[in-house]
Description:
Layout: H1 8-35, H2 43-65, H3 71-94
Helix pairs in contact: 1-2, 1-3, 2-3
Amino acid sequence: MNWMNKDENLLLERSFLFGVTGIVLCLLALANSYFKLLEAPMGPLNGVGIALQFVGLSIAVLVLRKTKITEATKDKSKKMVLVLGVALFFFFLVI
């Protein structure tokens, strides 16, 4: 299963899903660290969230590196890289 042969829109959907799931998990860990809703360690949850964001970011970069893609797809991929990069930077600074 070669990811370079997949459809660009499908890859961008997967990148979005991985990225949003990672951001939500990191936000849950961050909210729990401030409000102390659960007495559980939030490090593993935060790590999984950051890993999912990295997967989403790498898929978006993979779409950017493909040849013969439309300009609209390239713009969507650039926006996804920017959003996930800023989110990763934020969650690294919060840790």
